Amino acid sequence: FYVLSDWHGQGVAQELMAWSLDHARSHGAREVILSVYVDNHRAHRFYEKYGFRDIGRIAFRVGSTVDDDNLMRLVL
């Protein structure tokens, strides 16, 4: 999730996560996979609190820039 810095610590990301996981479950998803920039340690900790685990790496392209991202998976 991308949350404006003024909203950090206000519970916005937790609300988004709760809605996303509820939505995925209610639509029969068995897992959720996301990518997160390899050096975004704060995001890694956030997702790990929900049970997401690293499953590999991918090259994530934004325009002409290619970043290394970790793939993370949560079994629902």
Give your account of this protein's structure.
With 76 residues, the chain is of the alpha+beta class. Helix content is 32%, strand content 37%. It contains two helices and three strands. A three-stranded antiparallel beta sheet has the order 1-3-2, covered by helices on one side. A hairpin with a 2-residue loop joins strand 2 and strand 3 (65-75). The chain starts with 11 loop residues before the first helix and ends with a strand.
The gist of it:
With about 80 residues, the chain is α+β, with helices and mostly antiparallel strands. Helices cover about 30% and strands about 35% of the residues.
Along the chain, the helix and strand elements come as HEHEE
Question: In this structure, how is the largest beta sheet organized?
Answer: 3 strands, antiparallel
The overall number of domains is 1
Name the CATH homologous superfamily: Gcn5-related N-acetyltransferase (GNAT)
Q: At the third CATH level, what is the topology name? A: Aminopeptidase
Residues in helix, %: 25-40%
What share of residues are in beta strands? 35-45%
Helical/strand content category? alpha+beta
The DSSP helix count reads 2
Which word captures the global form?
Answer: globular
Name a few traits of the molecule.
76 residues, alpha+beta, Aminopeptidase, three-stranded antiparallel β-sheet, 3 strands, 32% helix, globular
